[in-house]
Design goal:
Polyamine Oxidase, Chain A, domain 2; alpha/beta; about 525 residues; globular; 16 helices; 7-stranded mixed sheet; about 30% helix; FAD/NAD(P)-binding domain; 8-stranded mixed sheet
């Protein structure tokens, strides 16, 4: 089915200029689509200060600013403890943060995080949530629990394109030397040694802090590899890919502690899956965000920009701009849980100079996510069959996932390919400028050109390209950052203020965001004198 007929059958805009499938692909127009992302226009108000003064004041015991995974987790825990007198203020129209999903003509897909590794026994809150959602079945504290098959990533899980061929897995196998393979084995042996020591953990606060381990933070991952006499280009590509994929940061910049943490922190097992299996769904991690939000209900105020925070002594004063109502609202909260990204602290907080100084030491990686609605999957190509995760060697992107992969059917109809790219090749500020300056059409063309290296027919089958621009997608665990002191002020339990964002861990993964949210909620409950059962031990 060609692009015109498919979009017509779905009721797409008739005004789109579409050509029949027989048209040469190099003359096909850029597919239509949407430009998505965080509310940059609203955020611009923070920089200009052009915001009206509040015309109403409300009082609440607990205000949570930010409805990403950290904020939702805080609300989830407060609600589970029977404490319901709280409000979540969220800038975007919907909650979920980096775990939001998107609806396309071919079905749902992610615009951010798209999987969750099997949680180990230390990730107590994650397992509690999964059990609550019915995905982890049986005892959530079991070493190898049973998981709902519908959420276990279907096989094949990964493949990689290099030298004109697709291979299974992401370790380069085509065109590598015996020395490359020896270095693979050496690297894997080193990671196994760290795992045996239980040196690295999720949540990261449970990691061991011996001097030799903390010293890793002062090296880049590249320098650490070279210090181990590991200089294989293929190995360096693989490790660099992993660091860009999880941290949005290249191995020359990422801390060796963070790089090794990626490979050595996982201990999750399942009775019905291999340990490297991941949990996923068509819309990525949006199902987890919905699960956290399920009991919160109308306690979310969306489209609310927190633009001024003041510690008033007996309470925290937070001014919110409500653009849909063209007015501002003042909240006086006995307790404030800040679950928004920490780069906002210097722009929003009045006073708190120590926090502002620490926040300026953070840097955030910009990302682009493109969702391609296709009339059919592109030709599989020579070698390994189409997988859930499909990676191109030496690509500026991180490949794509087939967001419809979990639907247990032959891939003969429409599908969604979710393409990821971390703009890690230049300084974050410069990369953000590039990200925001280019049009949706320019980014769509760049994505199509990248995928055309492996799929000559990608333009012919692509019906729609939705582009999401994430200017501050995640904090970057650069050399010297994780244990350099910048995070510590945000981990403190102060009388009226707690922080509940993955930034506090320095690692932007679901488990860390949830941990920080639950921890902030439990600290708040203690100060309120509310009894509860901890979700962290």
């Amino acid at each position: 089915m060609d692009r015109r007929h498919f979009l017509g059958s779905l009721g797409a805009a008739a005004g789109a200029s579409l050509l029949p499938a027989c048209t040469p692909t190099d003359r096909l127009p850029t597919p239509p689509g949407r430009l998505l992302g965080s509310s940059s226009e609203i955020g611009h108000r923070l920089r200009t200060g052009n915001i009206p003064t509040p015309n109403e004041t409300r009082r609440v015991p607990v205000l949570i600013v930010g409805g990403g995974i950290g904020g939702l987790s805080a609300g989830w825990k407060l609600n589970k403890a029977g404490f319901r007198d709280f409000l979540i203020a969220e800038l975007e129209p919907e909650t979920g943060g980096n775990s939001r999903g998107l609806q396309t003509p071919a079905g749902p897909c992610p615009i951010g995080a798209h999987y969750l590794p099997l949680p180990g026994t230390q990730a107590v809150a994650v397992r509690e949530l999964l059990a609550e959602l019915g995905v982890l079945q049986g005892d959530p504290r079991a070493l190898r629990p049973h998981y709902d098959e519908r959420y276990l990533c279907a096989t094949p899980q990964e493949r990689m394109y290099r030298n004109g061929l697709w291979q299974e897995g992401l370790w380069p196998q085509i065109g590598v030397s015996e020395d490359d393979r020896r270095q693979y084995a050496r690297f894997q042996q080193l990671m196994a040694t760290y795992r045996q020591r239980q040196a690295f953990a999720v949540p990261m606060v449970l990691s061991r802090r011996t001097p030799d381990l903390l010293a890793l933070d002062r090296l880049s991952m590249r320098d650490w590899l070279l210090a181990q006499q590991l200089d294989s280009p293929a190995l360096h590509w693989y490790v660099d890919y992993a660091c860009r994929d999880d941290y949005g940061t290249a191995i020359g910049d990422v801390s060796a502690w963070a790089g090794i943490h990626y490979f050595a922190c996982r201990s999750g097992e399942a009775s019905n899956a291999e340990g490297d299996t991941v949990l996923t769904a068509p819309d990525g991690n949006a199902w987890l965000a919905r699960g956290l939000a399920a009991g919160i209900g109308d306690r979310v105020m969306s489209g609310a920009l927190a633009y001024r925070v003041v510690d008033a002594g007996r309470h925290m004063t937070v001014d919110l701009w409500l653009p849909a109502e063209r007015r501002s609202l003042r909240i006086e909260a006995a307790h404030l849980i800040w679950a928004a990204p920490l780069f906002l602290v210097p722009r929003v907080f009045v006073g708190h100079e120590k926090l502002k100084l620490a926040a300026r030491k953070f840097s955030h990686a910009p990302w682009l996510v493109a969702n391609l609605t296709v009339s059919a999957l592109p030709a599989a190509g020579a070698g390994a069959a189409m997988a859930w995760d499909n990676v191109l060697y030496d690509s500026p992107g991180l490949g794509y996932v087939v967001s419809t992969h979990q639907q247990m059917r032959l891939h003969q109809g429409a599908a969604v390919l979710t393409y990821y790219r971390a703009l890690s090749g230049q300084a974050p500020a410069a990369a953000r400028e590039v990200l925001l300056q280019r049009s949706r059409e320019e980014w769509a063309e760049e994505v199509l050109a990248d995928l055309a290296k492996a799929h000559a027919d990608i333009r012919a089958v692509t019906l729609q390209v939705d582009i999401a621009l994430l200017g501050h997608a995640m904090s970057r665990p650069v050399t010297g950052f994780v244990w350099g002191g910048a995070r510590e002020p945000f981990a403190v339990d102060s009388p009226r203020l707690r922080f509940a964002h993955a930034d506090v861990s320095g690692l932007s993964i679901f488990e860390e965001a949830q941990y920080r949210g639950v921890l902030a909620a439990e600290r708040t409950l203690r100060r309120l004198g509310v009894r509860f059962t901890s979700s962290l031990v």
